[in-house]
Amino acid sequence: MTAALVSVCVLAAGVLLAGELADVLGTVGAWVYLAVPALIFLETTAFAGWLVHGELALLTGGVVIADQGVAALGLMIALVATAAVAGDLVSVTAGRVLGRPFLERRLPRAAAAVDGFFARHGGKALFLGRFTGLFRSTLPFVAGTSGVTVRRIVPYSVASAVIWSATFVTLGYAAAESFDEVGDTVSRVALIVLLVLAVALIARGRRRARRRGDAPATADSRGASAPPGP
């Protein structure tokens, strides 16, 4: 139940934040074509997946450019995909230069495990990791520590970057006209769900408290009814 509560909060916050970001980026004009790719590059290279939400940035970019036509959509997709690939390449290189020596000196067994994993599943891991924030911001660096070459990851990086960028920028672009309405609806639904969950949590807490209170009384009654010893 707690996980559901957190999920609803994250969903509502994400939609509302996307609307705010769209308003902010909409005031910077053509700079949006630099701002969104910069966020994507930062997320991949600086382990900033904790701070920068890539999908949110792409959705926001799609919303902002929606009134500029299909050409703007293609340009945004190309720019953010390029930024994502560039971030991967920088992270892999950093992993080879910084991470590999550390593993070999301090964690040789871990180095062997990492090498084996990426030798077998490196391409698939990098491709699928693009679609999860934590893996998107860390897997390229870890892949670099395994000794993976830049040339080897380029096909997987390009394919995943194009699919990921096109999907979320296009979603934002298509939803731009109804974005405010969708945000309001999600906010109302989230509020209702939060209230229901809060009531359920309070009721659950009271039931547990009553059970704890009843337990000593039951034990006392059992002790009183027990026959005295010889």
TrEMBL record:
Superkingdom, taxonomy of origin: Bacteria
Transmembrane portions of the chain: 28-52, 153-174, 186-203
Keyword list, A-Z: Cell membrane, Membrane, Transmembrane, Transmembrane helix
One Pfam family in the UniProt entry: VTT_dom
Membrane topology: Multi-pass membrane protein
Every VTT domain range: 56-173
InterPro entries: DedA-like (IPR032818), VTT_dom (IPR032816)
Subcellular location: Cell membrane
Family statement: Belongs to the DedA family.
PANTHER family reported in the protein's UniProt record: INNER MEMBRANE PROTEIN DEDA-RELATED, INNER MEMBRANE PROTEIN YABI
Record's protein name: DedA family protein
Organism: Solirubrobacter deserti
